[in-house]
Amino acid sequence: MPEQSANAVAPERSRLVVLAGPTAVGKGTVAACVRDQHPDIWISVSVTTRPARPGEIDGLHYHFISDEDFDRLIAEDGLLEWAVVHSAARYGTPRAAVEQQLAAGRPALLEIDLQGARQVRERMPEALMCFLAPPTWQELERRLVGRGTEGPEERERRLVTARTELAAESEFDVTIVNTDVETACQELVDLFRSGTSRIHS
To answer: Residue 118 domain-assigned?
Structure first.
């Protein structure tokens, strides 16, 4: 039999891990690290009604769809979770793709917001909920300002949202502090290999 790659996740069971956390904490960056270094882990691509940011690719970062198409997915129960984020655009996770990967025994990662994570816990209580936290509040503010993708009003709205999101950490099973992307990425991948189910009481 061919040897399994040292970086591959053991295939004895599928596992669904949900990664959530406050805005600008680096969820997308950590998920991209997992995608690049551990292609055996399937990462769900969310649908969203917001326009693409510079450098974002449709079908890779998000599926960018119209409000009408989003409404249709809701009506057909085609979303595992969905939410209005930052009082603006809607985001959601296509249900069929997740179920197909898990049925095939492949480990799956959802990188979603707090509202979506709560919905997934209701629908798939076996999922492991992972909270990605910033080292400090000041660092979170620095990252949000530094990425330069939002204006002052949008940044302020996202910081208000982030305070609420940080307060929900205790709802999650595991917390990873995103001090360093590579380290956070490896800690996340380790969750697929381990037997960890619940850490917070």
So the answer is: yes
- Running DSSP on this structure, what letter comes out for residue 106? -
- Using CA atoms, how far apart are residues 68 and 164, in angstroms rounded to an integer? 30
CATH code at 165? 3.40.50.300
How much is the pLDDT for 83?
Answer: 87
Amino acid in position 11: P
pLDDT of 51-64, one tens digit each? 998 999 999 889 99
- Would you say residue 166 has pLDDT above 70? yes
Instruction: Indicate the number of domains in the chain.
Output: 1
Contacts of 155 by beta carbon, 8 Å cutoff, 6+ apart: 144, 145
Q: How far is CA 118 from CA 4, 15, 80, 171, 188, in A?
A: 35, 17, 11, 9, 19
State the DSSP H helix or E strand holding residue 93, giving kind and residue range, or none if neither.
Answer: strand 90-94
Q: Regarding beta strands 90-94 and 174-177, do their DSSP bridges make them parallel or antiparallel, or are they unpaired?
A: unpaired
**Domain range holding 148?**
16-193
**Helix axis angle, 27-37 relative to 181-193, nearest 10°?**
60
Task: Flag whether 71 is in a domain.
Answer: yes
